[in-house]
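Any chance you could type out a protein's amino acid sequence plus the matching backbone structure tokens because I've never seen that pairing?

——
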Amino acid sequence: MEFFLRQVFLRKYRRAIALIISALLGLGTALTLPALSSEKAVNPVQLEQQGREFYEAGQLGAAAKAWQEAANAYEAAGDRERMTESLLNRATVQQALGLYPKSCQTILQAYGVNDLNCQGLIAKTDPLERQLEKEISQDTPISSLQPLAEAPASPNKATALLRLGDFFRQRNDLKLSREVLLLSLETAEQLNSPQAESAVLLSLGNTARAIANREQAQFPPPTVALDVALNQQSSVEAALAPYQKAIDYYEQSATRSQLPQTRIQAQLNYLSLLVDIDQFWQQATAEAIESASKSTIDDPIFRAEIVGSSQKLQSKLERDIRQKTRALTAQIQPQLDQSSLSRAAVYNRINFAQNLIRLEGATPNVVQLLATAAKDARTLKNSPAQAQALGLLGQVYEQNGQLLEAQKLTEEALRLAPASENPEIAYLWERQLGRILNAEGDTQGAIAAYDVAFNTIQALRSDLAATTSVEPIYREFVSLLLQSDPDQQNLNKARRVLESLQIAEIDNFFRDPCSTTASELVQIDDVDRQAAVIYPIILSDRIEVIFALPGQDLRHYQTRIDKREVEDAIEQLRSQALSDPQFPERLRGARGNPQQQQSLQKDLQQTLDQDILPLANQMYNWLLAPVEADLAKSGVKTLVFVLDGVLRNIPMALLYDGQEYLIEKDYNVALSLGLQLTAPQPLTRQSIKVLAAGVTRELPQLGLPPIPKVEQELKLIKQIFADSEVLLDEEFTKLKLQEVLEESTFPVVHLATHGRFSSTPERTFIVSGDKPGNDLINVKDLENLLRAGSPDRSIPIELLVLSACNTAEGDNQAILGLAGVAVRAGARSTLATLWGANDEATAELMGYFYRNLATTTQANKAKALRDAQLALLKAPGSQYKHPYYWSPFVLVGNWL
């Protein structure tokens, strides 16, 4: 079908399309600002009107400025209501530009909330799922907005709450977004304003959709599919259930709207949701079927049941969702055809075309929609909207292999909306241009286009919406820079992009682009002349590695391998390494029986030889084998890995060269989020003082067992460093931790407690000894606690130790949480575990680690950790020989 459509498209419509392009790219496309009075507007009504004209013309920056000036003029005239309205218009424009933090600040300004900025507003949120379920307490952002909360019902109040709800959704504070939007809906209902209700219901649908996406993402897609297929009889209703709330809101919004464009927008959002659901379930069921086909389950009947049920679900969902999308499409198309000329109508056509591209591919209808949108935008003199339509039209031609036409359209989009004026959309078209040029064989032109896109993103970093994903652009750029034999210029550029990718991932984790970075990359020679830095990146068809030795040119090597194969190998290695063999317990049970002990040792070695060492050797061959000889000659003592994706799930100390582990090869090992984030400095040689806090009790409500060896661990730290302070169990509360950190300086903060780090802040926390209900310290609270005493802290936290079960357990972004907390709180390094470590082994390792720091004058943190791990690995009786015990401990950040 796709081939047939493409042939029809190419034959029947080529001439018509050529005429469309000719018209769209003609000299008539030159745009000017809307015709305004040559005299500077001096009264607020004039300024307000200018704002509207600029907005319709797509000159959003100018519109924001005009509305700010109108607000200032209204304030001077004593008209507070019109001042507020102008500021809310400005906030709306800022959100249209993706500048959500600035829009929040404008809303606070509108309601005179002068003692709290948006960061302070966010700090009052508690994103832990359990605590979000509570009723809103007195200490919430809503209670902080008294001027707004106490204001009488008005259109301005409904709009302000609506925009705040949008802001919190972009910050991923989804339940708070819902609460604020429900207040906005209540206000709109008090005003008996169906149009205001429709706008809020549309936003509530978007928030409900984001909540459903987050809940769905807790489990791998095949697991979700198998649950519905096997446990819920392949029910379509069960598959759609997470999104039913969003669907209801979208339908209510469309029903209540009195304006055609708002009704169409609600229907378009519903359509895009259906397309998302369809694509998710097609992927999930396909992966479930593939997994079942490859499964080693001995029961062929059960395997057949899995495949059959998954196929049945796939078929039922495809039929149901496609039926719904066809019905919606049939409703939307005639409404668009009847739409009057307006900015909203132009963007609705563009939105509809985007959905049709995902549903049907590049069809003549899509081309006509985008051509009409571009023509109408030109009539409105709205160059950003025209650029959007032409850029998407370029994407359509790119998909059809008509690269010359695609290039012309994309270049015209960039001419109409250059990066200097519209950076928030221009970087997308620069990326598209780079992709097209690369397909045409113009590698240098493609690199230049991606370079502009990259630099535009860097300049926009603090303003991009938190949900904006720039990761694919960075990966495509690196792939392009390294695809042939790269010179030093391209290697250095690729290295910088990889560093920036690490920063972008931390920013996205925290939904806040505030990670402190250096303006330039630090030279290794200036940091540690005995350290090498390894930058691996997993691309779709290969692993690329950039290798940096002090005083030498960058090197580069690659392994051709499918990304899925890499991910499967790493998942398998992690699964084997984190499986608790309970070896010390089994050895103790065999005391006095040498034959049984020998048998246990033999079984352990067999497990290592069969399940772990081959995979660890494979990873060594990917990452280090090509430079093994150079490393041996270099005199390097420390290997610093800047890891990518699933590679973060495996401790690099576990890599195996066929004879010994990497940790046995006389190299210290550390992880870094990049030299732009890390400011490596030697460990300060003053008397080390540790703040050691821990919890021993079990938490049955979270399924967490007691960790009795924590008390021994903290006592040992106190013995080694007499000036240290210990907070155990009920003494360890958020308030007490803050008080102690504010009263004194501790170069080392050691937290021995249950913790869970995942790919989202909402599920990242450590456990304090406080009473249940107040005992979870979320990642944002932890960051704020560690900043206690800042910015006047003369001595930073040198080391944050998270000696806890389940620290960083989970997915490939979990380590961003623990490392990101340290980076943002000013701590130079973090020591944590990649999976739930054995209680006894952890206590022993921490003892070795701190003794190494205390007694060896030349020991840096990385060496102290390596020596401690070797002490476990080489322990008498080899009770900790399995990687489960010694390998999960990783040092992230400053390794000196």
